[in-house]
Amino acid sequence: MFVTKMIRIIVLSTIVFIGFVTVMICAFLGMSIFYLWLLSAATICIVIYVTLMFYQWHRPGFRRMFFLSMIIVGLVSIYTYEQRNNALKTIAEPYVPLEQWEPFHPNRPIEIERAETNLSSDSIRITGQAFLYPLYSSFVEATFSSVDPSYARQVLDTASRPLDSLGNDTIAFVPEYLLPTDHSVEPVPIAKDAFVFFTHQEQEVETISRDQVQSIYTGALSNWSQVGGATQAIRQYQRKEEDSQEAFEWFMEESSQTDPTTPYENVQNAIGFTFYSNYQFVEDTNQTKLLAIDHVAPSQQTLESHEYPIPITVYAVTSTTPNDEVTSFIEWIQSEEAQTVIESVGFSPIQEGEHAY
User: Fold this and answer.
1) pTM for this structure?
2) Domain 98-192+316-349, CATH homologous superfamily name and number
3) Which are the contacts of 83, defined by CB distance < 8 A and separation ≥ 6?
4) Do domains 98-192+316-349 and 193-311 have the same CATH topology?
5) Distance from first CA to last CA of the chain, Å, rounded?
6) Would you say residue 285 has pLDDT above 50?
7) 245-255 pLDDT per residue, tens
């Protein structure tokens, strides 16, 4: 009799131990709180079921009903949770589609006021990185108002390396980290953007330091508890062959990075990155929030005051011998009229006295 009791105690203790270890491992691996509670509940139910089997404290058929009920409740809970989670999970492209930013598009996110001065578009070509397209397409809409809309769109394009095809009829819009160091072009600073990091809106961490972000992406920090949050493994996301990935590599400097992963999935322990100008046009239903960096939240105000620690200066770049149309366009971009356009599409105007290089 004593041996039988000891065997039962050992079996029940083993079940509890296995359940506890499983929950701890899953928590370390970043499994959601829902599944941690589900595993804990499943362990308790198994202990109850085995206890009933040992001592037969039940009517005939009760144990079978208990087992089936446990499975049904578990499956329904998982299905409900996954349905809710899938409604806000993968954000492959949360921004306004690029084609809607085309000049004179009927569904453009914002309306651009026509400039008082109409510029010639006979001998000009405008290009730049894709994340800057809302900015320079808005310049075109403002200044080419007397031009046929279809032609205005033809003078625009996007390129990952816009300076490679720079001619005397070309204006290229690029971030600071793409400027050459040999002074072979004429860069004019025109606006400020910011490199920002975001997470799920229910993530309790509100601010993080620049060094901590770099440590997350090198793998030195792997849990939100290390930056003031709950005990959750950090799921960090990168992108492949996108403008923001190039900005990310610039931000990381010489630090080694973990391999790029899938598009951002909006789960509570995730972290991703983008440009502040792009983020302002993300739909609210994506349920994300921006993280403050070194206790400074990104905004046009903190960019203008130079408080935000990861600003990106945007340049309009021409050849050293631009034609007259290009020169006139650059002069207009530096006018007060153009500053209004810059602010309306999510950028911060450049401060007086800021120069290239």
Assistant:
1) 0.73
2) Periplasmic binding protein-like II (3.40.190.10)
3) none
4) yes
5) 86
6) no
7) 889 989 998 76
